[in-house]
Write a structure and sequence with these properties.
By secondary structure, the protein is α/β, with parallel strands linked by helices. It has one domain (about 5-285): TIM Barrel (Alpha-Beta Barrel). The protein has helices at about 5-15, 30-40, 45-60, 70-75, 75-90, 105-120, 135-140, 140-145, 160-165, 175-190, 210-215, 235-240, 250-255, 270-285; strands at about 20-25, 65-70, 95-105, 125-130, 150-155, 170, 170-175, 195-200, 220, 245-250. The strands form two sheets. It has an eight-stranded parallel sheet, sandwiched between helices. Strands 6-7 form a two-stranded antiparallel sheet. β6 and β7 form a beta hairpin. α2 (about 30-40) packs across α3 and α3 crosses α14.
Amino acid sequence: MISFKNKLKDKISKTGHSLCVGIDPHTKNLFPFLDSIIKLKGPRNFLTGFSKAHIDAAKGCCSTVKFQSAFFEQFGPAGFESLHESIAYAKANDLLVILDAKRCDISSTMTAYGTAAFEIFGADALTIIPYMGFDVISALESWLQKGFGIYVVLVSSNPTGEQLQSLRISSQSLAEYLFNYFVECLTKANLVDSTGFVIGATRLSILGSFLKNLATYPLLMPGVGAQGGSISEELYAVLKQSRSSLVPISRALSGLDSHPDTMNVSSWSDYSSFIRSRIFEFSKQLSLR
């Protein structure tokens, strides 16, 4: 069975860049075309059209898409139905799918979350929170052994995350302590190649030597674009070292960061073309060739 890490590395190698297309249908301050869709045709039409526009733009030139589950869940049944349909569409277009749901619970509940993520929705990877220990991962072992993957949130891109993740435990930060704990457990369980870590692109400068240890794993590095992060030399150096790592970009691709070009969009086809042009801009900056 091919591990998630090797699947991802192969996909990235074929596309030649580390861009992951984030599908985050945020409904605040929508520009005119999207605002008209959600008002006139409802959330299901909006969510499905939004997702399909991103997938159509990404197919053939990107390795991965990442669905932010919360922006679908907020619409209830219509959101869940659209998420299921959109993930299937992404898979049909040969894209790996990360479900960004940040699950964390005891073993029995994590097993249920795993069933939902991998069997019902059909995602390739799931983001998780590590606070409740290795049970969060061991409950997913049967799927991880079949080639599915997880991303453990260690160093998040939000500003207040640092207050907790930088707390010292002896000579280590909490993030470093958790990393070492999980790597030891993952090694014993032979799940290393199924696991990546979330490291905020806005936090790289404070990680120091810890970053070198992290870079041997698949990293998911959010924060570029709407959260204020940039494709810095430091970020690019990590990508060159860790060829299975990804930089997810969402609102800066979708135009939900008030990009002026979106004012000319009047159809889903226009919108997908706009996203594809933004994908090409960022993929050049994230090229590994």
